Amino acid sequence: MRQTNKVFHLAIPCKDLDETVNFYEKLGCQLARRYSDRVTFDFFGDQVVCHLSPENIDKHPTMYPRHFGVTFLDKEEYNQTLELATSQELPFFKKPTVRFEGKREEHMTFFLVDPANNLLEFKYYHDASMAY
Question: Which of 26, 40, 71, 123 has its CA 20 to 30 Å from the CA of residue 83?
Answer without folding.
Answer: 40
